[in-house]
Design goal:
The chain is α/β, with parallel strands linked by helices. It has 3 domains: 3-101 and 333-353, NIF3 (NGG1p interacting factor 3)-like (Udp-n-acetylmuramoylalanyl-d-glutamate--2,6- Diaminopimelate Ligase, Chain: A, domain 1), CATH 3.40.1390.30; 105-125 and 240-324, NIF3 (NGG1p interacting factor 3)-like (Udp-n-acetylmuramoylalanyl-d-glutamate--2,6- Diaminopimelate Ligase, Chain: A, domain 1), CATH 3.40.1390.30; 131-231, Alpha-Beta Plaits, CATH 3.30.70.120. It has 12 helices and 15 strands. The protein has helices at residues 3-13, 47-56, 80-90, 100-104, 109-117, 144-153, 208-218, 252-262, 292-297, 310-314, 327-331, 334-345; strands at 26-29, 39-44, 60-65, 94-97, 120-129, 132-140, 167-176, 191-204, 226-231, 234-250, 269-270, 278-287, 302-306, 321-324, 352-353. It is globular and about 85 Å long. The model has no long low-confidence stretch (mean pLDDT 97). This is GTP cyclohydrolase 1 type 2 homolog.
Length: 364
Amino acid sequence: MKIKEIIQVIEAYAPPVYQESYDNAGLIFGDPQTEVTNVLLTLDATEAVIDEAIAKGCNLVVAHHPIVFGGLKKINGKNYVERVAIKAIKNDIAVYAAHTNLDNVRNGVCMEMGRRLGLVNCRVLQPKKGLLKKLFTFVPEADAEMVRAALFEAGAGHIGNYSECSFNAAGEGTFKGEEGTDPYVGTPGKRHFEAEIKLEVIFPVYLEGKILQALLSAHPYEEVAYDIVALDNAYSQVGSGLIGELPGEMEEMAFLQHVKAQFRAGCVRYTPLRGKPVKKVALCGGAGSFLLKSAIGAGADAFISADFKYHEFFDAENQLIIADIGHFESEQFTVELFYHILTEKFRNFAPLKSTITTNPVNYL
């Protein structure tokens, strides 16, 4: 198995197009054509993790956080990023990161957090826009099901928790084949009228190439008429944060103790209690203060995230409880998510989970 095959599986789950503009997810160091000896899964690709990879014979480290976030102008070992780069390259260890693209997919980092709390009825807290397109095409009635099925197989037609969604309208199309054509129906040089179905399907932007290939392969016409338009719809399967419900209401302090235990947090920083039970919970892995208004607007009783600044705690304004559990604590189970993604696809392959705790924050 080559490195590129591992990457393809991860990116099929968390497409790179879903990463934020400031991010640097992807293959940081290494040759995608290299054969994999084994994979080490981690939250952070630190020097200690690279040493662990060397000791365990792993030539690919898959991390959540990109070790190189900004540009490197010099690599002389003066800081930990440069030292990781030098050590990884010298020892032929590739480093790959799936960061905000893995945060933004519905079954990504936030859902992994939600599972730890037992949340149900989960949905993306702040869905993203501009990630969907719609295909319109025109197919002879007798061939409509064949084309429709091919588009569904390629990934079109998903709306929320529904699949194979399409709109079909009957109509009549006309065309005249010019000299040198070989029309599927009709005679060259004569206008032809054909009963057709106008077929509409929605699809995520990253699948456009695959969708078009499926259309052109399945459609019977020599020249296929189609339109693709960009949509501004919010994509319910992709975005920031998650909101769900506890199976039953919990008293506030009991809920905070539950959160602390499930995330093995050294401490939980929280806003004043409201004297109300907790049922609806919003959460975000990593620094999630930018989602506070969305959590309040969604009617959350509590918002679990990390890296809140002092004055941002005031912004809760007694409308919910902010529970800051720490950056590492909120994302630590990403390693388990990587493991699930890879072992689900490669049943006879066992990636290794790093035993290094990379949390740079300690608690007294």
